[in-house]
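Lecture notes, continued. The same structure-token format from the folding unit now serves as the input rather than the output. Read the line below as a description of shape only.
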């Protein structure tokens, strides 16, 4: 009942939010803990010169973005994509928030199927 998306956005279908909430924690000695990489917030605050590291990615990348993301703007996504040598995108999912799989699940599935075809 206390599960919240970060950043905040409409939660999507209740059964999906409930599933994510139930599978986002694990029991540990003394209680419960989140199942996420605690370094992620600091990784997201990359300094300007760290964008250079993106140019060393040697695998194909498809960058998918929610049109209404509160985290990454289209301009930021374009800048990231420009740094990655073999990158398609940004591929924008219309009317999608940051958590695309919750706000536009069918559009995301369609996009992924197209990209993987």
């Amino acid at each position: 009942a206390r599960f919240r998306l970060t950043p905040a956005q409409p939660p999507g279908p209740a059964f999906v939010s409930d599933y994510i909430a139930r599978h986002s924690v694990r029991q540990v000695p003394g209680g419960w803990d989140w199942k996420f990489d605690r370094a992620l917030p600091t990784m997201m605050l990359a300094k300007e010169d760290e964008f250079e590291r993106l140019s060393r990615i040697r695998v194909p990348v498809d960058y998918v973005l929610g049109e209404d993301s509160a985290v990454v703007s289209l301009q930021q996504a374009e800048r990231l994509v420009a740094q990655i040598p073999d990158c398609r995108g940004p591929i924008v999912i219309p009317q999608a928030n940051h958590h695309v799989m919750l706000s536009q699940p069918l559009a995301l599935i369609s996009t992924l199927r197209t990209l993987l075809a």
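Point for the exam: The longest helix spans residues 105-116.
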